[in-house]
Amino acid sequence: MKPGLSRTVAILTAILAGALLPQAHAAAWLVRWLVMGMLFVVFLQTRLSRESLHRSHAWLLAANFVIGAAAWGAGWLIGGRDVALAAFFCGITPTATAAPVITSFLGGRVSYVVAAFMLSNLIIAALLPVMLPFVLGHPTPDAFGQIARSVGGLVFAPLLLAWLLRTLHPEAALWPKRLGNLTFAAWVTAIFLITANASEFLRHQSGLPRTIILEVALVSLAVCVVSFTVGRLIGGREFPAEASQSLGQKNTTFTIYLAMTYANPLVALGPTFYVLWHNLWNSWQLRRHQHPTPR
């Protein structure tokens, strides 16, 4: 089985298992540590150099924020607060840890996507404590401090630990190559627990209209299409695939955790559905790259 297809099958299996085993929601507290572990492994091998930066990175960052804000507004018009938050968490999500890997499979320039990953994850993590209280509806100093501590621990603690370990033991930068399968297993486990948590929540919401789940699924699909398309436009002729991947393939476990922590599992379904959409797209891209259509 091809790498892209096998990984999509694994993710679909995790989503299905989580839906059928809501009892696993009791272990949802592990999601935070799984996310931190995945970020730590990625930061071990990630270094931001001046040569890898391009002016289009600034446009990608701006697009990330604009898409998040526009998705939030569109979600309000479509289905109200929960749909708006689900759309926001889809749109604001930074570049995925796996984006450089998929780019390498597609024959793109990995250094460009690595720079996009570092910039988007660090800058968005730094600004989310300012944004989240407003989109959640309670812009108070207490909310800012709580979110800042949570996001700071989630992203900057693994970053500092990885930097310290790489400084003291340079060979640690080679560990991620040997831990690729373990990192993916952690990601699939997180998706399973997130889906189980959402399944448990929905089972106790008998009065919740089923149409809202469809609205969340469709709005996440729309954000996915817009993100990949806008990224390709920003990349232009020089970095079309790289910029598209940087903006479209998102670090959803990061914002799923935030949605579960500060909203509810229904909102977390937005970026959870996004996992499905962007992996289906990646599977199709990998298949097309391996079996190009004759011109």
Q: Please, could you describe this protein's structure?
A:
By secondary structure, the chain is mainly α. It has one domain (42-284): Na+/H+ antiporter like fold (Up-down Bundle). Helix content is 79%, strand content 0%. The chain is built from 13 helices and no strands. Helix 1 runs parallel beside helix 9 (180-203), helix 1 packs antiparallel against helix 13 and helix 9 packs parallel to helix 12. The radius of gyration is 18 Å and the shape is globular.
Topology:
Layout: H1 3-20, H2 30-45, H3 55-79, H4 81-92, H5 99-105, H6 110-136, H7 141-168, H8 175-178, H9 180-203, H10 210-235, H11 240-248, H12 252-262, H13 265-290
What's the number of domains?
1
Shape: globular
What level of helicity do the residues show? over 70%
CATH topology descriptor? Na+/H+ antiporter like fold
List descriptors.
295 residues; mainly alpha; Na+/H+ antiporter like fold
Summarize the structure.
The protein has 295 residues and is mainly α. The protein is built from 13 helices and no strands.
